[in-house]
Amino acid sequence: MTNIPETGRTPRVQTRLVVIQILVLSLLGTLGGRLWYLQIRQGAEYQKEASGNHVQQVVDPAVRGDILDARGVPLADNETRLVVSASRTDLLKQPDDGKAVLTKLAGVLGLPADEVRQKVRLCDAKTPQPCWNGSPYQPIPITDEANAKQALQIRERAEDFPGITAEPEAVRRYGGPGRANTSQVLGYLSPVTDEEIQKAKDTDSPYLRSDMVGRSGLERQYDKVLRGKAGVTRYEVDNLGRVIGKARSDAAEPGSNLVTSIDSRVQRVAEYELDKAMKVARQQYDKITGTNYKADSGAVVVMEAKTGRVVAMASAPTYDPNVWVGGISAKDYKALTGKNSDYPLLNRAIQGQAAPGSTFKVVSTAAAVEAGYVWDGGYPCTSSYSVGGQVFKNFEGENFGPISLGRALEVSCDTVFYGLADREWKKDGGINPKKGQPKDFFYKAAHQFGLGKETGIDLPNEVTGRVPDRQWKLDYWKANKDAWCKYGKKGGTYVQVIAYENCLEGNKMREGDSINYSIGQGDTLVTPIQEAVIYGAVANGGTMYQPTIGKAVISADGKTVTPIPPTKRGKLPVTRATLKGMDDAFAGVITRGTAAWKFNGWPQDKIPLHAKTGTAEVYGKQTTSWLATYSKDYTVIMTIAQAGTGSGASGEAVRNIYSALYGVNGDGSIDGRRALLPQPQTTLPKVRPDGTVAAPKITSDPAKDVEKAQQNNTSNGADTQPPASTAPTDNTNSNTRRRARRRGSRRMHP
Known about the structure:
The chain is an alpha+beta fold. The chain folds into four domains: about 10-50; about 55-260 and about 735-750, Penicillin-binding protein 2a (Domain 2) (Alpha-Beta Complex), CATH 3.90.1310; about 265-350 and about 525-730, Beta-Lactamase (2-Layer Sandwich), CATH 3.30.450.330; about 370-440 and about 470-515, no CATH class. The chain has 25 helices and 29 strands. The strands form nine sheets. Strands 2, 3, 4, 5, 10, 20 and 21 form a seven-stranded mixed beta sheet that branches. Strand 23 (about 610-615) and strand 24 form a beta hairpin. Helix 15 (about 405-410) packs parallel to helix 22 and helix 16 packs across helix 20 (about 510-515). It is globular and about 110 Å long.
């Protein structure tokens, strides 16, 4: 008798078979579910993607819109050039990754082989310029300066140059009309990256691999409207790549034009005068350091006082924005970004921040009045002001006796403001105020004047400056306490002593902090554009405007005009009486105050000017020159680092800018025919249906005309100046833009 079933299988075998059957059924079920998901649920999507494998795109890049000055003169436009490009995808299909082809190409173009090979490298953290920072699937431009003979060699011997194209394309051009550079304002372009393509794919402005993107300045701020929309034609192809039909075609839409408030003539004069002032400063001897002034950087802003529109904005050192076109070379890249470059890419008008010196007294004066101090009170202007064992001096040791707040502004008496700030510090409780006790009039006034935050100008990467109030001191102390305590030493060097004191009580508002703050020293930082907003508000009666450069966006055919109106930011925290007192005092700076020696002979009765000088001391460096000025129409702010006094370094240059605007001769007479912009520009240029712009022809260099006028005129003891400009004649621009619009390149992309 046996226990084995009739099947001949043991219970263990039967169990294994059941498990195997379950596994098989599970696998079949999973496979069936996956097939259902792929074929039914996602079938349409995969079918669409599969069909894409048999569709090739031909991209017709959109021609980028022009950036125009207020009169319609192109600051940035396009021209048609022969561009030689390399397809990295095709090169990598070759046995040697295309090295032989690139070497042969270099011979045709007359370029070093290494330079050509470097241009097709992809940029990363370890790869220096030149390299390609755009999409690896986009044709990489090798040169945009090929001639017709070189292009024909490449096209006629296509079998010798696989992956290489030579085609006419619309290339960005920064023409520098009348030698007006405007580089930091305009910015530059570079290829779109894969990351940017992914981020923008689901937005209303997606990128194509052929797109160039604005990286700074107006090119970046208004990139979307300038870029337009590329045309794409989709062709159906077979497995061998042969075209078997057209799937769809979308026409290219050219970018719109940006009209700015910049006047290229005034821009040129501003750039010229800033550069000249810096060169002159370098010839002057600094008694404090025993060397000549370095004058290593500076900025100037010319702004409409009643609208906030920027007429000119210059920053030094500067650069040629055309170096970015077609890919920047290693030499140029190092010159712009290296440690010894002085960083010319930086727009110091909105990104350069420094202690404002006595130009800050406009804030301190408003704060004093708000705190209850009488405008015409007799405040002691002594040669020095002592606190404990520390002595705070007037800049040059002046002593004017008891004077009013207005007179204190005129002669820039530091000790008057020392005393006012010190009294308020003591009223607020000194170094250990009770909770809720400090009124902090001087610090609150700065915030009300718009300092410590961006002005909102339509340029990227504006900095905020700094108001060193109690909250800032606390935050800064928390961030730096450990370093201060480690480095500080009670009896050490000056820097070590400061670090030691900051370690102990850097979170508290000390007496010396408030005294220095009242004259724009210490930790206070402002930018030239912030000062332009403040002094523009004083000029127009108290309204602070958000500064703007964009004036209008006009479609490529000229049919659609979208104005960019001025925007009010708020009002100055001063009464009309205080504003009137400030206005009179700033006029006195020109006629009998700290700037009078530079404006002697100016026709003040016909074109009243107002000014405030500033000389900011910087530890370890030479003094920074500030000069803030305004007329009834314009505000002009100039600053030069390590250049000496406000009027000494900047006075002549600022006077020359006003002379250019109003046509003032060196002897004080006025010649309206030579005035560049006696009144702000109000009309917009006209864009014709074919894309050309009705704009005046640039016939001369305004800055050179200024120099000629200086040589031909003499003044009564004053520096000679003013600009001349040939009266503009209405003329059309060249046909470059029209050709570029017609002949956008066509590229094949997978």
